[in-house]
Amino acid sequence: MEISPLTVNRLSLYLRCLHSLEGEGVGRISSLELAQQFHLSAAQIRKDLAQFGEFGIRGVGYEIPNLIERLTSLLGLDRIHPMIIIGFGNLGRALAASIGFNSGNFRVVAGLDNDPAKIGRRVGGVLVHDASETAAVVAATEAEIGVLTVPAEAAQANYDRLVAAGIRSILNFAPTRLSLNAAVRTKDVDLRIDLEELSYFLSS
Amino acid sequence: MEISPLTVNRLSLYLRCLHSLEGEGVGRISSLELAQQFHLSAAQIRKDLAQFGEFGIRGVGYEIPNLIERLTSLLGLDRIHPMIIIGFGNLGRALAASIGFNSGNFRVVAGLDNDPAKIGRRVGGVLVHDASETAAVVAATEAEIGVLTVPAEAAQANYDRLVAAGIRSILNFAPTRLSLNAAVRTKDVDLRIDLEELSYFLSS
After folding, report:
1. Nearest CA in chain B to A91
2. Domain presence at residue A199
3. Does residue A61 lie in a domain region?
4. CB contact under 8 A, B76 and A3
């Protein structure tokens, strides 16, 4: 079963909403209530969740603990995913220090940089290694996710090094078009493109 | 003419590629060459650019300076867009200091925070103001883009304050589902959701 990234993203949203409801002591919710409370589409919720079996009972709604358990397992959030950050500049450091990023199932276990002033230092609890030792660091930490926060011109070489080291997924912040390895899941976060989208709508 | 955000994002990519080619002294390129060089789809390029008139001449390709000029104007990149950052924590500071974010057409002109230790201080050239003065800061700086880097629980109140202050577009990093104002263009950058997408594909 192949689920599209957009659907996966919505499942994450639903799970976040369900956790919030569970925290408030709510045990059951209908797609309509869920939609109204979190500014979502009830039809979309029903469609998305129908793909994974019959969670909902018509007229009764979803059992929140059960749905949380299923979505948690489906999204791979029943275990820790070790991450390494490649490029320990402003953004790399900020991500390592971010509670929203480096927490829960996602833990930054090492940094990589090519700046001798940074290598061997511990920044916010994260030890920075020489980027030339990528393979050894990935092997030692069993990192699954590589977070690429290097400048655009250094991105492809570091991407290739991560792939060669056996990293299976990459979150790429470098504003460049990488030549991708099909076996590695790569997600681009291109803030420049996001700003230009806003600029377009400001100007149109 | 309404262009979808995904198309706008591709136009940004094309423009970036064209700038790179122009820097190499290339004056003209076909959709096929453009696609091959930057790992894009030639058919998609032709379709996207056809919406804006006949840039290309069959068998000849696009005149790069002309296409750059048209895309630059279309994307609103022929002028500066002042930005304010709301929440001067790790991420807000990193964005203000980032050459990829705070440069070119996009300039951070002020920061906002509610921490007395930060208010009135200049961090990386950006003066941090009291978040309660959002309206006055937006008016004084003529900021067009609000960058929301506050914790999830503070996001809605600050979003509403930005909207009331007349901000027309918002880049939201807070991992929460905001109740949106339809007149304000809001773009979410939700790194947690991006990580969960990678987690799903790691687990499936």
Report:
1. B94
2. no
3. yes
4. no
